[in-house]
Amino acid sequence: SGKWAKAMAILKEFEDKCSTPISKLRQVADAMTVEMHAGLASEGGSKLKMLISYVDNLPTGDEHGLFYALDLGGTNFRVLRVLLGGKEGRVLKQEFTEVSIPPNLMVSTSNELFDFIAAELAKFVATEGEDFHLSPGRQRELGFTFSFPVKQTSINSGNIITWSKGFSIADAVGQDVVSELTKAMERKGVDMRVAALVNDTIGTLAGGKYDNNDVVAAVILGTGTNAAYVERAHAIPKWHGLLPKSGEMVINMEWGNFRSSHLPMTEYDQALDNESLNPGDHIFEKIISGMYLGDIVRRVLLRMAEEAAFFGDTVPPKLRIPLVLRTPDMSAMHHDTSPDLRVVGTKMKDILGITNTSLKTRKVVVELCNIVASRGARLSAAGILGILKKLGKDTIKEGEKQKTVIAMDGGLYEHYTEFSKCLEGTLNELLGEEVAKNIDIIHANDGSGVGAALLAASHSQYP
Ligand code: ADP
Ligand code: MG
């Protein structure tokens, strides 16, 4: 019928605008490399902040003793303790607990939030068994993963630039997040020193490097997206401090904020951005990360319903609710292998209130998921190529035997198999067979928790 043809025309136009041929991906990768240079050259020189992390040494494997880690960056926070046993023992023991943050505290005051965190930390410390034996006379030390934008001032201090992800605590902005936590720990009687303040990409990089010495970069694909990598200190013109002994500095790219005229943006992406909490910002993130992919699918389905009666004569009202279709549900539909696409049918009914979808309709939904996920995955691969280019690892060097490894983490990468398969396939295609042999992607599972504890160990007050 004419309606079906109209719906297919909407889909086709969207698909065309999303297309990411290899030539375009190369342009995106080149733009990423250019912006990396610009962000390193001067403060504010690029949309890429290229934040200096003050981490100039990644774990060596020699770290030993008891260390804590705290991960705050979403609706849950995690507290972890690990007993490190050096090169022989590695991670001897670890325990963690996960606590959800009461929504009212996400928009309260700094004292209220950090008192809650410190109180939970106190409870967790109280459950520390003898087998974690803290060396006599030593204070407990903590690696603090804080995944909001921070202007770092040393390895264990930094001021909050702004909140995101549903947090909004005005009196904490501009404050040193480590001193806020430390004061709360004092109020709650927790005797612990924050030895390292890091962001989740840096934690993942540290955890990844501990597992595999050839790791040079980390990429997070979760609710949001970000990347970090090891840069040569003398390649950072905006760094005016002493050159670190290692000659290296870990850079937190904040790559979610990357944008380029080469990114394939559709009218749906424009609308999503306009209606977001941070219009104009984090454009790369809005095209590739878990917070948004499902909503892009919803927006296209809504257009097909409005202009081509794709779901019948009335537009299903739930289709108008922003963010109602979440990426995990999109991925469940995309991965549906049943002959009648049963999962798609159930999701359409349960989430969007659309009953009795035909197999033909369900196939279109899967195709739409594939278009949105593939674009995100292919652009993520282009971003990684940008980093490899910056490191000079995108070509074969004569006699080079060392592998180059990228540590990946985050719920999107971990659970959305079609996405991660596509990302890896695209990266191999971009690199070519010869170079691809030298580049590995590993999943740094919960690297961020252990990674922060490792960085606390390498920045311990005890030699
Ligand atoms: P965060 O990024 O919030 O720190 P995670 O790394 O655990 O936390 O990522 C969670 C995000 O991963 C979710 O917001 C969602 O977008 C995405 N995600 C989780 N599970 C799936 C899934 N099964 N399929 C696709 N995406 C998923
Ligand atoms: Mg996380």
UniProtKB/TrEMBL annotation:
<feature type="domain" description="Hexokinase C-terminal">
    <location>
        <begin position="217"/>
        <end position="457"/>
    </location>
</feature>
<dbReference type="GO" id="GO:0005829">
    <property type="term" value="C:cytosol"/>
</dbReference>
<comment type="pathway">
    <text>Carbohydrate metabolism; hexose metabolism.</text>
</comment>
<dbReference type="GO" id="GO:0005739">
    <property type="term" value="C:mitochondrion"/>
</dbReference>
<dbReference type="InterPro" id="IPR001312">
    <property type="entry name" value="Hexokinase"/>
</dbReference>
<dbReference type="GO" id="GO:0001678">
    <property type="term" value="P:intracellular glucose homeostasis"/>
</dbReference>
<dbReference type="GO" id="GO:0006006">
    <property type="term" value="P:glucose metabolic process"/>
</dbReference>
<keyword id="KW-0808">Transferase</keyword>
<protein>
    <recommendedName>
        <fullName>Phosphotransferase</fullName>
        <ecNumber>2.7.1.-</ecNumber>
    </recommendedName>
</protein>
<dbReference type="GO" id="GO:0008865">
    <property type="term" value="F:fructokinase activity"/>
</dbReference>
<comment type="pathway">
    <text>Carbohydrate degradation; glycolysis; D-glyceraldehyde 3-phosphate and glycerone phosphate from D-glucose: step 1/4.</text>
</comment>
<keyword id="KW-0324">Glycolysis</keyword>
<dbReference type="GO" id="GO:0005536">
    <property type="term" value="F:D-glucose binding"/>
</dbReference>
<dbReference type="Pfam" id="PF03727">
    <property type="entry name" value="Hexokinase_2"/>
</dbReference>
<dbReference type="InterPro" id="IPR022672">
    <property type="entry name" value="Hexokinase_N"/>
</dbReference>
<keyword id="KW-0067">ATP-binding</keyword>
<keyword id="KW-0547">Nucleotide-binding</keyword>
<comment type="similarity">
    <text>Belongs to the hexokinase family.</text>
</comment>
<dbReference type="InterPro" id="IPR043129">
    <property type="entry name" value="ATPase_NBD"/>
</dbReference>
<dbReference type="GO" id="GO:0004340">
    <property type="term" value="F:glucokinase activity"/>
</dbReference>
<dbReference type="Pfam" id="PF00349">
    <property type="entry name" value="Hexokinase_1"/>
</dbReference>
<dbReference type="InterPro" id="IPR022673">
    <property type="entry name" value="Hexokinase_C"/>
</dbReference>
<feature type="domain" description="Hexokinase N-terminal">
    <location>
        <begin position="11"/>
        <end position="210"/>
    </location>
</feature>
<keyword id="KW-0418">Kinase</keyword>
<dbReference type="GO" id="GO:0005524">
    <property type="term" value="F:ATP binding"/>
</dbReference>
<dbReference type="GO" id="GO:0006096">
    <property type="term" value="P:glycolytic process"/>
</dbReference>
